[in-house]
Amino acid sequence: MSDFADSAPYHQTHKRILYAIMISLTAEQVHRALPFDTLIPALAQAFAEGATVPLRHHHDMTNPGHRETTLLLMPAWQSGDKAGVKLVTVAPHNQDRPSIQGIYLLLDLPTGTPELMLDAPALTARRTAAASALAARYLAPHGADTLLMVGTGTLAPLLIEAHCQVRPLRRVLIWGRKPAKARALAERLAPLGVALEAVDCLASAVPQAEIISVATLSQTPLIQGRWLRPGQHLDLVGAYRPDMREADDEVVRRCTLFVDSREGALKETGDLVQPLARGVITPERIQASLFELTREAHPGRTCESEITLFKSVGHALEDLAAARLVERHHKETP
């Protein structure tokens, strides 16, 4: 470090970097900059155009006395334009602070200069919900009017709002392990203008919905394949580790499978890794990724009776596309 510290160019560059990272945007600012009617098309364009995205670093760090804390590092860049990297920790055992924390750093690629530092949980939540809605645009029944939301955490209200952007939803059922939280969420989302109802029985709620969105930290399957009926679409958002499950083997056996990215899905999510390991399915069962859907290399849903499943594991391209929208909004807002 002393070799650099003694040089004037180092001091000048260091000063510029310090100034850049001081432009830090809060969660509220990130949410405000990413309305779904803008973010969903931006993600579609990003997947169609592509970017350089190494497989994310995924490290499970032992934590004596608690569940493991997961560290995720997700870089992406577009040649000659922008680069970004997200650093996120997931600590499901947290009691007095959020289970997901982190930052996103957007850089000017030609100069390497950091330009914005963003609240990563807010960015992640909105781009994740938008990616699910983008998939539903290709995979959910066109006339779908009922959504079942499984889970009541941070992502739940955003997934509901995002799905409302792409399908004519009139009714939303909400199930959670704690019924009081499901009822509170239904009351909070009343301004959406759809009928919201907290439900106690998951088995009876599943057949009522054309779209089933699941966003939990469950380590055992919640959705059972025997509950499904023809024509449904499943949106599985949780199970970000190989030891987590949101749907049982019968679900993946019955469904036509789609993912955001093949590389990540085949390695990281228990909803696919576990049935693959047991020979329930093969990698060839995955029909298409969001890259192929947005480039029209696959038509998506092919018939009314098909049961489709979209497995979201997260992709750094989504973060970069969302961060660039935040940057544009920040420059345009006085």
Give an overview of the whole structure:
There is one protein chain. With about 325 residues, the chain is α/β, with parallel strands linked by helices. The chain has 2 domains: about 1-125 and about 320-330, ornithine cyclodeaminase, domain 1 (2-Layer Sandwich), CATH 3.30.1780; about 130-315, Rossmann fold (3-Layer(aba) Sandwich), CATH 3.40.50. It has 13 helices and 14 strands. The strands form 2 sheets. The protein has an 8-stranded parallel beta sheet with strand order 9-8-7-10-11-14-12-13. Helix 4 (about 35-50) packs across helix 5 (about 120-140), helix 5 (about 120-140) packs across helix 13 and helix 10 crosses helix 11.
What order do the helices and strands come in, and which of them pair?
Layout: H1 2-5, H2 8-21, E1 24-25, H3 27-33, H4 36-49, E2 57-61, E3 69-77, E4 82-90, E5 100-108, E6 113-119, H5 120-139, E7 146-150, H6 155-166, E8 171-175, H7 179-188, E9 195-198, H8 202-205, E10 211-214, E11 233-236, H9 249-254, E12 256-259, H10 262-268, H11 270-277, E13 286-289, H12 290-294, E14 308-311, H13 316-332
Helix pairs in contact: 3-5, 4-5, 4-13, 5-6, 5-13, 10-11
**C-alpha-based Rg, rounded:** 20 Å
Which second-level CATH architecture of the largest domain applies? 3-Layer(aba) Sandwich
Mean pLDDT: 90
Number of strands: 14
Structural domain tally: 2
| SS content category | alpha/beta
> Can you summarize the main beta sheet?
8 strands, parallel
The strands making up the biggest β-sheet line up spatially as 9-8-7-10-11-14-12-13
Give the H and E element order. Answer: HHEHHEEEEEHEHEHEHEEHEHHEHEH
Proportion in helices: 25-40%
Strand content: 15-25%
Beginning-to-end CA distance, first to last residue? 39 Å
What is the global morphology?
globular
CATH level-4 homologous superfamily of the largest domain? NAD(P)-binding Rossmann-like Domain
